[in-house]
Amino acid sequence: MPPKNRTKDYIRGAYYHIYARGVNKRKIFLNQSDYKAFLYRARSKNRGFVEINAYCLMPNHYHLLVQNKIERGIEKYMRSLNTSYALFFNRKYDRVGHLFQGRYQAALIKTDAQLAATINYIHQNPYKDRPETKTRYPYSSERNHTFEAGPSSTRSSTRQC
């Protein structure tokens, strides 16, 4: 039986929560330029494969909420994104070997309620250990999202990142 959240067949048009972390839980972003380099790659490596609806980059892991746009879109996108960023990181810090702990994980979002809960989870991730924090986390798409009343309004009220 495949590991939980290790989807291999992605549904065109479906939403997925994708996440990956550094090998041995090590940091994959060491400074502001690393976060910016990842976000640049997240946008530039997307050749219509996916639509990025939410993201949060933490020091040792990241979360993406994407909609699969084409057949094998997530696979192509994630291979390009993770490989490109790992090469950048390894060159910059004169290191070799794996940056990410295994393959990325992908969880299918099945309902509007689950979509809203996943977006909230992704955006609240930086605050879970610091609930008193009032400032917005700079490496998140939280500022791009507004939520209106009603369960079906979530999709129409999110903007692409």
Which key features would you list for this structure?
4-stranded antiparallel β-sheet, globular, 161 residues, alpha+beta
Describe the secondary structure blueprint for this structure.
Blueprint: E1 15-21, H1 32-44, E2 50-58, E3 61-68, H2 73-92, E4 105-109, H3 112-124, H4 153-157
Antiparallel strand pairs: 1-3, 1-4, 2-3
Helix pairs in contact: 1-2
Description:
This protein is an alpha+beta fold and about 160 residues long. It has a single domain (about 15-155), classed as Transposase IS200-like (Alpha-Beta Plaits, 2-Layer Sandwich). It is built from 4 helices and 4 strands, in the order βαββαβαα. It has helices spanning about 30-45, 75-90, 110-125, 155, and strands at about 15-20, 50-60, 60-70, 105-110. β2 and β3 (about 60-70) form a beta hairpin. α1 runs antiparallel to α2 (about 75-90). The longest helix is centred in the middle third of the chain and has 20 residues, at about 75-90.
